[in-house]
Amino acid sequence: MKKLINTIESFVDEACEGLALAHSDLVQFHREPRYLARATAPKGRKVGLVSGGGSGHEPLHGGFVGSGMLDAACPGEVFTSPVPDQMEAAGRAVSNGGGVLFIVKNYTGDVMNFDLAAELLRADGIDVRTVLVADDVAVQNSTWTAGRRGVGNTVFVEKLAGAVAERGASADEVERVAKKTSEAGRSMGMALTSCTVPAKGSPTFELGELEIEIGVGIHGEPGRERTALVSADEIVDRLARPVMEDLGLKRGDQVIVMTNGMGSTPLIELYVAHRHVAQLLSGSGVTIVRSLVGNYITSLDMDGCSLTVLRADDELLGLWDAPVHTPALRWGA
Amino acid sequence: MKKLINTIESFVDEACEGLALAHSDLVQFHREPRYLARATAPKGRKVGLVSGGGSGHEPLHGGFVGSGMLDAACPGEVFTSPVPDQMEAAGRAVSNGGGVLFIVKNYTGDVMNFDLAAELLRADGIDVRTVLVADDVAVQNSTWTAGRRGVGNTVFVEKLAGAVAERGASADEVERVAKKTSEAGRSMGMALTSCTVPAKGSPTFELGELEIEIGVGIHGEPGRERTALVSADEIVDRLARPVMEDLGLKRGDQVIVMTNGMGSTPLIELYVAHRHVAQLLSGSGVTIVRSLVGNYITSLDMDGCSLTVLRADDELLGLWDAPVHTPALRWGA
Amino acid sequence: MVVAADMRRFVERFAELIEQNADTLTELDAAIGDADHGINMRRGVRAVLERLGDEPTPGAVLKTVATTLISKVGGASGPLYGTAFLRASAAAGSKESLDDADLAALFSAALEGLRQRGGAQAEDKTMIDAFAPAVGAFETALAQGHPRKDALQAARSAAYAGSDATIDLVARKGRASYLGERSRGHRDPGSFSTALLFDAAASTLSGDGP
Amino acid sequence: MVVAADMRRFVERFAELIEQNADTLTELDAAIGDADHGINMRRGVRAVLERLGDEPTPGAVLKTVATTLISKVGGASGPLYGTAFLRASAAAGSKESLDDADLAALFSAALEGLRQRGGAQAEDKTMIDAFAPAVGAFETALAQGHPRKDALQAARSAAYAGSDATIDLVARKGRASYLGERSRGHRDPGSFSTALLFDAAASTLSGDGP
Ligand SMILES: Nc1ncnc2c1ncn2[C@@H]1O[C@H](COP(=O)(O)OP(=O)(O)O)[C@@H](O)[C@H]1O
Ligand SMILES: Nc1ncnc2c1ncn2[C@@H]1O[C@H](COP(=O)(O)OP(=O)(O)O)[C@@H](O)[C@H]1O
Ligand SMILES: [Mg+2]
Ligand SMILES: [Mg+2]
Ligand SMILES: [Mg+2]
Ligand SMILES: [Mg+2]
Range of B51's domain? Predict the structure, then answer.
């Protein structure tokens, strides 16, 4: 295992320190329990937005702390959901009388740990809401399973809920926008190579020299199928079609699109992939109103990409364009 | 070789198309000869800034086309400098009576191809200046060799020259700022793994499971030494010390710092590296006034990082903070 | 009777088994999850050993384990095992020593906590599939008049057998459920750590001293 | 005498040798450069073959080669070989056929163009180290009264020998110069493509037909 790392134990803390050092104007790091919060608290009774999850998906979530997006992020160990102490402390820190919204990716561990924290905060009279993100169409949905995994749409939920919260909206309103966004987005990812969790020290899964995994999860969870290496365009086809179908996209729909790298994917390749994403959507009469291409929700050193498509009406588009100033997403500021 | 790629021949064109599709408000793509230019031409007799070089270093240079930075970028084949036709056409397109500045990384091929283009443009009465970026301290300087390689400081030169050009400064003034920035920055990089050039299909160099290359070039050129894998902090030590020494940094100096990924490096690791960069500089009494952490000048799928330090006086800092709106760098807009 | 010292030995033995099997647990999780179950559990039990002090009662020992797991493990297993230990601790109350019936009540409270926290049923391919048979076997053996030692052995065997049986199941809860049919053919990692838990219990809680 | 058809055969043979040796050239460049010399040269000669039409004179053939290389190769080798061919073309002028002296003038103009464009000297470990000895050997052989065919063979041998000699040199120009001492022990890739150029000349420009 070759990584820029000092010790496995200090890895996540040191990365948080580095983030806070690089963006001290935006983010401060609380070590015990571990969370990242805005360097300057927003004024007024703003709804506090807290997200979090296992580390290894950077810039998610710490890179999205800042004005117009999250108030705090709780980084767990690598690929392990954070513990309730973290969300409890972060929630308490950002709760300003306006209530707190937890944005939780739909993984059993995350859900349970955030739930425990919510119980603790509610016991203190804090109004805590939770929105689940469950957008990964690689997973066939079913009511008696854990549901879909939360992946790329988390970025959109954090941005749009963040924008409406920044405008001073009520907890009900922020929760509504978060849920609406959560329901309007779908994703699917693929891997060219496995990631390697530092504590394990060897790849999570093995792929042959000419094999790829379609529908992979952001922790290297196996996906829909393992198949032969095909061209970028074919790979994009296999991601985009299920996403578009599941979203029920029709001619005339407007979408915000993210062509996302898994951590080790060169940007030049992401642009090659994005070209075909754009071609496919335009070819179906869908209008791409905004695009993100880059590393936004990663899987450590996995090579591969994912596609997220969000159906955006004027409300969501307006919130998208609202100013945001975080380490990883910035405009209008 | 596992990549998101359709054909080797179409790779660079398709990536340019993808970039232009993702950022159609900022960048447009001209296919023959190949260059990327601003979607909306700036008003007035603004000095036209043109850069370029081999592809594979994304977001450099195409990702830096936009207001407050480049007017055009000329992407060559992967790791191969562009041909004079490209810079000639781009120079002609962005020349607006105010002159043109070529920002050229110091590689023999780039220098000669930009020179040929400058000859052609000058023959048509266009005022063309050239600034060379030669900041890689891994290369021992000497007057009778080709000089140092141009690496990370290119990002700073493009940003700061871009900012002063955007203010409507004269060609002399833009050239002065570009040269001043070029002289005030130093870099050094390292590789955990080799990159793979698509046309070659196999890694450029071989590194053992526990070997790293210190001082590697952005095309996988061998560096100062091949050594055993060490901790992130030790790696940063070996990059930062030569950079700081060569720059002659003293207590009280102000610097802008970039902790850059080589293309396949997870952001979490870059933050771990940046933490120690910040510690080392602060420990020497140097003040980091601005930081960039991420992939800004890459080497395809190389895993590793580089450090660039720019000594910044108030003029350069002011230009740094000026608005910029490009695919890869954006603030104040 | 089980006193605080026995309960501490149980926890220490569980920690030991986790240390020995951490890589196995992680490998199992790599196949159908995210390759961290061993790492998570190891982080948890190490923190438990650091925090365990001179708790006066079995219930207090269990409480320390519970809060430490909740605040150190994360993932699915943290809240699940944490809740199980918390309920067990509540069932043990402040008693100085536990008899067979107390132990049975404690196991069944733990199982109930697991069920409530995770919402999983039998055959969802989770730790429930080791935990529930173990608790069932323990109760049955006691009801049949077997000594506690044998009942604990029965629980241990049932837990391992239950874990074995997860191999053929399709996961419906937790990360592995995302795989659907592809989860079949692999052992559920949490069921194996649960088997280790009952293994530790069998060798430490028989009430006849160390 | 060398006419346009001979010059075209020379270019085609050069293209053929580049195709055959592209991987070797790239491997050489991988060791001390950026692993693209063979790729660059192959892209260039392929474009040349596509563009070559029915140029009437040797000079016109060389002009097509020059402009194509300049606008297709990029890197260091594009402008260098491009300039060399451009100067050679200028030296050939509009003559229908070239005699020995014309050929010598053409070679030496090409060499001069290389020197000016790249600023490299002998022993800088560049294509100059194959080109200069080749031109020298050609001139010497002619001066000694050898027939052109033999003079071309001498140039070919001198180019290969010059390329061999780059192995022991430390690079002072081009990408390899960044390596300093570490460039020693590797052949300069450009010197090898130059040797292929003189190899192609030897088998096509002897003036005694195909
Ligand atoms: N809803 C649930 N109910 C009971 N056990 C569960 C549930 N979800 C997951 N588990 C157990 O948790 C184990 C995984 O734990 P771990 O790998 O530590 O957490 P994570 O899945 O968050 O990475 C699974 O093997 C399974 O036994
Ligand atoms: N200044 C120079 N003068 C003469 N030849 C040079 C010079 N610089 C480089 N070369 C030649 O160019 C070759 C490299 O060409 P190539 O790999 O195609 O370009 P690049 O170095 O830009 O990747 C070197 O092997 C060397 O022979
Ligand atoms: Mg996990
Ligand atoms: Mg090159
Ligand atoms: Mg797991
Ligand atoms: Mg080269």
Answer: 11-184
